[in-house]
Design brief:
α3 crosses α4 and α4 packs across α5. It is globular, with a radius of gyration of 21 Å. The strands form 2 sheets. The chain has an 8-stranded mixed sheet, with helices on both faces. Strands 2-1-4-5 form a 4-stranded antiparallel sheet, with helices on one face. It contains 9 helices and 12 strands. Helix content is 31%, strand content 22%. It has 327 residues and is of the alpha/beta class. The mean pLDDT is 92. The longest helix has 18 residues. Bound molecules: adenosine-5'-diphosphate and magnesium ion. Adenosine-5'-diphosphate binds next to α1.
Length: 327
């Protein structure tokens, strides 16, 4: 049984009389201790999906099983268990911490509440252990600090320590490094990877930056999202070294321009047409990418919405022009 399983998830937002569907037909399986990365442009629905996974938002259709149980029907102790085991690290470390609370209490409170630890000595040693895990050492320099005296990166580490106090098995990491200094990003990601090795947590890692996704989900799985749908998914290495979907090729080209993490190969450059990104209220007919896709075939791509199909043993893709064995 997978730890997390989504089947055909749909999410719509209602605003007065208009309903906008943001997520369509999302399938996803994450095993215990596994990393799954999602990459897509800003506004494509990543945070919406992350919030559903973290139990912070409901879904309009489909099924979400956590440890084999439908999340929308959980009640009482089972809901409490889910809310403890599934946590989310948010994008903005300046908003996620209570400014009037010392670091010690921020981490000690969940230990008191969820683990029933009352003894001050035990609390202190557990808080110290967690601060060490997230790399805030020497611990004594941090326990009595308030958030205002911490950098963005340090605040994000406190948020992570506070989450770890709950013994989570699944953490949604939503653009957690986008608001901290570039020079500190890799170090925070390394800390997250070390935590996974020590504590066997599964991650759903959200980023708009393919290079960062490649770094974090190297040897793991990745999916690429466009306008609320998955366009390609499978082994990170495969996707990054030989992207199949035109949208993946385009974001890979853009990512190569920005960073040295991905190698540049001039012959692989691929750019989308310079037209506006369609909005959720006017999703194009046929393949949602076709107005921006230089390969689009008239009479095919503007008519048929591609199904997700198997391209090879480690990859699924939704493009009418990408051949493979049908799923
Ligand atoms: N609470 C909400 N009410 C209405 N629309 C929303 C709400 N939250 C997100 N959206 C819309 O859903 C779309 C996807 O947003 P989001 O999931 O935040 O994208 P991403 O995280 O990929 O940037 C956007 O068009 C956004 O405006
Ligand atoms: Mg977001």
């Amino acid at each position: 049984m997978a730890l997390v399983e989504l089947k055909d998830i749909v999410k719509s937002f209602r605003n007065g009389k208009t309903e906008t569907t943001v997520l369509r037909g999302i399938d996803l399986k994450i095993e215990s201790g596994e990393t799954y990365c999602v990459v897509g442009e800003s506004g494509c629905g990543k945070t919406t999906l992350g919030k559903i996974l973290a139990g912070l938002s409901d879904y309009s259709g489909g099924s979400y099983l956590f440890e084999g149980k439908e999340v929308s029907t959980l009640k009482g102790e089972e809901w409490k268990h889910f809310r403890q085991k599934v946590q989310m690290i948010h994008q903005n470390p300046y908003e996620s911490l209570n400014p009037s609370m010392m670091v010690f209490d921020m981490i000690a409170n969940p230990l008191r509440r969820h683990k029933g630890i009352k003894d001050t000595g035990r609390l202190y040693s557990e808080v110290s252990r967690l601060l060490e895990v997230v790399g805030l050492t020497p611990v004594d320099d941090f326990v009595d600090k308030y958030p205002a005296f911490l950098s963005g990166g340090q605040r994000q580490r406190v948020s992570i320590a506070r989450i770890l106090a709950l013994d989570p098995s699944f953490i949604v990491v939503d653009e957690a490094t986008s608001m901290i200094d570039t020079s500190l990003r890799i170090s925070l990601l390394t800390t997250l990877k070390e935590i996974q090795e020590k504590m066997d947590v599964a991650y759903f890692f959200i980023t708009h930056d393919l290079a960062l996704g490649k770094y974090f989900a190297s040897g793991k799985k990745m999916m690429i999202m466009y306008l609320g749908q998955v366009v390609e998914e499978g082994d990170t290495q495969k996707i990054v070294s030989s992207p199949a979907h035109p949208y993946t090729k385009a974001i890979l080209t853009a990512a190569r321009g920005n960073t040295g993490i991905l190698e540049e190969k001039a012959e692989d450059r691929f750019e989308l047409l310079g037209v506006d990104i369609p909005s959720f209220s006017q999703i194009p007919s046929g393949c949602p990418l076709h107005p921006r896709c230089p390969l689009a075939v008239k009479g095919l791509c503007d008519v048929r919405n591609p199904e997700m199909h198997r391209l090879d043993d480690s990859r699924l893709v939704s493009c009418l022009l990408c051949q493979g064995d049908q799923k």
